Amino acid sequence: MIFLSRRKISSYLTECFLFMAPIYVCTLVLPKVGVLFELILFFLFAIFSSRRDIKITRYQKYIILLFFLPTLVSFLWSIIALGPINDALYYDLFESDMASRMMHLIVLFALFYWTSTTISTTQPDKTDKYLKAYYWGVFLILGVFGVWQMVSSVTGIWCPEVATRGDAYFARDAGFRRLTSLADEPSFLVPFLIEGILLSLYLKNYIISTILLLLLLFSFSLGGYAELAMLFAAGLYFSDNKTRTRGIACVVFFVCLLFIIYPELFDIISFFLSERKELQSGFKAADTGRTLTYTYPLISFINSDVGTMLFGHGPASFKYLMTTVGLGNMFTSSNNMYIDVLYEGGIVSIVCIMALLIYSWKKITRLVTNYNRKDSIIVKLFFLHILLSSCYRGDYSSPRFISMFLILICFYKSLKFKNLHYSTVKA
């Protein structure tokens, strides 16, 4: 009875972890709330998690070996490199940001172990509750206030001002604010919106997916628009010919209708694109800070010694690089996971994480059958979303990225159960 009670509590805590994932990108509006909640969950799991005959699955082992372990190796290498580097700035980084990152990763590792173990031991037909927890968290934490902002921008009704970066970058020059909801900026908001759209579609909640799609359109996020277009194209590719034809016809009709209703739409799109500094400068590194965050890490990596090329400069060392080139605290990430991992963790880390992603793809696609074709398309799109969103989000050491692995475990168990159900019904 005690064991069952612990298991139920662990299940509720896992749902809470997934539900609260969006709160970690609301640091300007709700500072320290995410950190506090993370610590509370850590202590609650430590007290109530089940300790009886728990076996680590193969997928959990791969995530630990290919995701968490390379970061530890990179950290140990950074300790060795303290002597040869002999830089006061790097010492300060090691004592503050790098130490904080490692403590955070230890907490994340423990939370991943507890939550993934809970999901792995949950009955396959019950795992959808974890997917619901995630997309309801997206809707209630980010979506509700986002709808208020969206309605306010259209109708002019009052909406409280929040201290986010909705007017940052090209929006500042264009003289308008992009929709951010409670997230720090649109690029932090958009990945959650797309995840909420795909999960709600998987669980047939079309009202939530439609609302989140509207919020995505009002975010004016170029990365979000590009990813949405690529996911739609991939969805058509994975579909049968009949669905593909219908999808293309619907898009053509919708685009033509938009231009008929709003003939000035083309001018608006051209204006937004022309305000992007990256496009204005032809992506010249000297002209935009964002382009600098891509080029400097790559240049530094190429000019590194063999050991640093293999194991990186250490966790959270991106801030050190930006300080050395005079950008200070303007950027703590390139907003590109692949570049961040390559610079901070080296070749070993980037190879390991790519191997983990490839294994995850093969694990999921093995379950694709004619019985679950529609569901499997959404699962494939979700996996592609992880790859694509990592091009404009560098949050690989965050609860959101850990949640992606948990959701993949849920998808695997859900598809496996549906395959068994369909085959049983057919028999």
Please supply descriptive tags for the structure shown above:
single chain; 18 helices; mainly alpha; 427 residues
The strand count comes to 0
Weakly predicted, low-confidence segments: none
Indicate the multimeric state.
single chain
Distance between the termini: 37 Å
- What would the principal axes of the Cα set say about the shape? globular
Nearest-angstrom radius of gyration? Answer: 22 Å
Classify the helix fraction into a percent range: over 70%
User: With helices defined by DSSP (H or I, 4 residues minimum), what is the helix count?
Assistant: 18
Helix/sheet category = mainly alpha
Indicate how many domains the architecture comprises: 1
N-to-C SSE string, H for helix and E for strand: HHHHHHHHHHHHHHHHHH
User: What kind of sheet is the major sheet?
Assistant: none
Overall mean pLDDT stands at 84
- Tell me the strand percentage band: under 5%
